[in-house]
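Look at one record.

>
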Amino acid sequence: MAFIFQYLFTNIPNTCYSLVLIVGLNQRGAEHHKSDWRGMHLIQVDSVQRWMEDLKLMTDCECMCILQSKPISTEEDAQSELILSSQNSAYDNLQLLLKRAWIISTELTRIAQKLEKNRWQRVHSMTVRVNCHVRSMINEYNSFTRNSSEEMHQFEKLLIEKCSEFTAVTERGIQTEDERTLRSMKSCINETLTTVAQYFSQLIELALTYEIQNLVRQINSSDNMYITESSTSGLFSLTQEGAHLCRIIAKEGGVVALFKICRQDCFRCLYPQTLKTLASICCVEEGIHQLEKVDGILCLADILTDSTHSETTRAEAAAVIAQITSPHLTFTQHLSSFLENMEEIVTALVNLCQEASSGEVFLLASAALANITFFDTMACEMLLQLNAMKILLAACTDKQIVDTPYSREQVVTILANMSVLDQCASEIIQGNGVQLLMEMLFERSSSGNSAEVAACERVQQKSAVTLARLSRDPEVAHAAIKLNCIPRLIELCRSPTERNNSDSVLVACLAALRRLAVMSPDGLEDLDFQQLVKPRLVDSFLLCTNMEESFV
């Protein structure tokens, strides 16, 4: 499970606050943020296995409450009995910290829920358990962190004191049955719970920052291959925990340290992992700002254009380009250095698409090209000059290379954006592109996965948009009509299941149908013409969205 440590205090009835730990799913490259084109990987964990893992972190509440976390053994003996070995890596330490924090966050949320239902006995027992977990977490963390800051110690002290106060006030709640007293106590408990949650989130933030600083420091100061690889892998794993950790990594110099690796030939074997980490960090604005500051675009261009680098390395560099040019990010337009290197980058990406030996490599390179066509209009003209249309259409005939709806989405995105150019029509005809667009109108998910279904919808929508744009050329329009595009477009308009109830697909198909109907009015039955072509577009849209599915 991936944890995004962004703590939100959300109001629930009776002024009770619930600490929400936002749980994210690893999606490499981004929210289309870490970009849909990487695909989605859902981590399934057996519940018993998860319970066994969490059990290691549980503590006997009564013993801990009595002992107040004080070790029975002498200080010297206690050092040998610590839960964590001092040799554990910073990443291992962070993972344990994240697990402890997840447990505490979950318990705080449950306390708020039980308090809302006036389950005073449960509130108290859970508060005691949280108290124990907090003390254990602090003890464990201090066992492997010898030089934590004074600010950290201060927050530890405040959190422990507030947890003790929390336990004491909930204990008074189980000792009285007077409703008026309990109502007044409830307000006090809510306030204490909120304070505990705030101190807890601030402490976790400090601890995460400190450990990330250690990883970045190791990368900057070490020439050792193993240490550098271990630290880079640690940073990558942390980026998968969510955008909040990516911001901390960027703020603490992670982007600068990683590009330092990419500029040293002795670390060439680490380039793929390093670039993968950079792509993940650059899902946030802070990461892209840091990339710009260290001339990261120039470094990426050098890697992409250097044929001595492995295909894997160049593919990961393409992934970084795809991330920083994503049209879903609103903070990429300041990348002035990208425009300076765009021609070299686009040329290298087209070559990578042409030479791709696997579907993943083609996906990353084509995703970067698709995003660049949104990023700057000159890119479409460059692609036309580089015969990119021919290369992409040829790649689509190889089912080993263009093997997923995500790859086809990148291709049709590029075609849609290039179709605004008049010269594009002849390229489409020569490359049998109309046939490909027709096939894309039949795109369906084989797995039923929600992300894949959404990708199929976008393929259908964009293929219809491309047909509508290209059909201003009579030759393309006649080719589409000859391939029976009109019946398929009508089917998509009239049958909600064929378009997966997608309104965007419906609008695109209506637009394409109207464009083709101008060229071949005899290709439509009178009812189709009266309902789908003759009325205003909005009227046809409303008709199709409200009609019962009756088309056969």
Q: What stands out?
A: The two ends are 45 Å apart (CA to CA). Residues 179-221 form the longest helix (43 residues). The longest strand covers residues 2-12. Residues 1-37, 39-44, 60-88, 548-552 have pLDDT under 50 and may be disordered.
